[in-house]
Amino acid sequence: MLAGSIFILSLAGLPVYGQSSASSASAASSTTSSSSVSTTSGVSASSGTTSVSVTGSGTTSAVGISGSGTTTSNVTKTEATALTFTLAVTNPTAVPLASITANETSLATIPLPSTATPATSIVAANYPPMDKVPPTDSSEVQAWIAEVQATPTVAGGCPANLQAAQDTSRCWWYCTGCVRDTDVQECPDKGTWGLTYDDGPSYYTPNLLTYLSANDLHATFFTVGSRCLQFPATLQEEFMAGHQVAVHTWSHPYLTTLSNEEIIAELGWTKKIMKDVTGVTPNMFRPPYGDIDDRVRNISIAMGLTPVMWTRMSATATFDTDDFDVHGGLASSYGVLNNWENIIANASKIDTGFIVLEHDLFEESVQLATGYILPSAMQQNFTIQPVVQCLNKPMTDAYIETNNNATNPPAASGAVTLSSGAPGSISTSPSKKNSGVSLKISGTSSALALSGVFAIIALFL
Ligand SMILES: [Zn+2]
């Protein structure tokens, strides 16, 4: 039986690749008067040339199918040497059919209408041999391997990993605030607040959803995969209510301490359960504790997840309410609101919008959000939006299945990114990303003085 396999029809000498299927066989049989090709099995049974009539350009033509066996490899072509019909229209400049042969002399080709000048000169010697798997011992490949093979950190954060914290090429946000262009750390437009809640869904998330709905507010929920498994209906309600849902890992670990394989498992399982529950796959993610370095970044981006942090003006001015710590007794409700006041004051000093760290895992943080923080924020006329929308992108761009490349094209590397300065952004104002807001460290910069590193580390003790 040839069903599903490829065979070749010889149409007046022109090879046409077709697929043996019930539909094509029945289409052929509808115009066949005396053919064995009335069903798919009829094709497989052919043992010699079979005449089949097909309709083309209003003309019935003869098509030869040669087959001496029942497998594709035994099917041979019959080369026609003349047309048995007349095409209705041909190109006046067409090369004569008799000249289009395997051993024809190559003719002059048409030059491209225009050519772009590459940013760097393309020299073949600078690349691996064409059409072969490139060797892995080149400096370029070794550098790419190193991007995802940096040694994981050990438990204990910055003090326990001083060398890693001092390594500016690692770009470890948790210890130094270092961001890359792929990171989202603020909303581009001043007065805009990218509203986010982490660690849910939880028992208290419906309380928050009810308040948000009553006030026509929408947020980004960075959900933990394990909580999605525990509260799938709540995750679904977040999505259905028009909130953005995004990844916050499966078990909330310090990602820089995990192996590449473990990071992939954390992100992959969370993406999967969110897809299973909502039908869509998120393309944003927030690393727990903000614990991300280039190795974690590169893995997350390779998995289609853009890192989203929270705004950080300096080591002492992060947009973290510390609401998470009220439940554990490490912070007071008053302290959280004092932090909020400082955030508002700092927001007025920067020329971009901002993103704040809040949580919906515990009752206390939801009570503070719905009772105090959100009401006061609405009074202050902030534009409160999910992160994807504060980046001036439609909600559909928040998911792999609905992302529109017209407004959010893939980066040149092929990775999907959602940074606010992404080409094709529909932002009406130029991106102000990183303009005096964040501590930006390039991969080769050694601008960060060691004393500064230790000062920053001390803050995390
Ligand atoms: Zn978290």
Automatic annotation (TrEMBL):
Its EC number is 3.5.1.41. It catalyses: [(1->4)-N-acetyl-beta-D-glucosaminyl](n) + n H2O = chitosan + n acetate. It is a lipid-anchor; GPI-anchor. Residues 1-18 form the signal peptide. Its cofactor is Co(2+). Residues 26-73 are annotated as: Disordered. GO terms for cellular component: plasma membrane; side of membrane. It is found in: Cell membrane; Secreted, Cell wall. Residues 191-385 form the NodB homology domain. Its main location: membrane. Keywords: Carbohydrate metabolism, Cell membrane, Cell wall, Cell wall biogenesis/degradation, Chitin degradation, Cobalt, Glycoprotein, GPI-anchor, Hydrolase, Lipoprotein, Membrane, Metal-binding, Polysaccharide degradation, Secreted, Signal. Gene3D superfamilies: Glycoside hydrolase/deacetylase (3.20.20.370). It is an enzyme of class 3 (hydrolase). One of its GO terms (molecular function) is chitin deacetylase activity. GO terms for biological process: cell wall organization; chitin catabolic process; fungal-type cell wall biogenesis; polysaccharide catabolic process. Coiled coil: none annotated. Belongs to the polysaccharide deacetylase family. PANTHER family: CHITIN DEACETYLASE 1-RELATED, GLYCOSYL TRANSFERASE-RELATED. This is chitin deacetylase. It comes from Gymnopus androsaceus JB14.
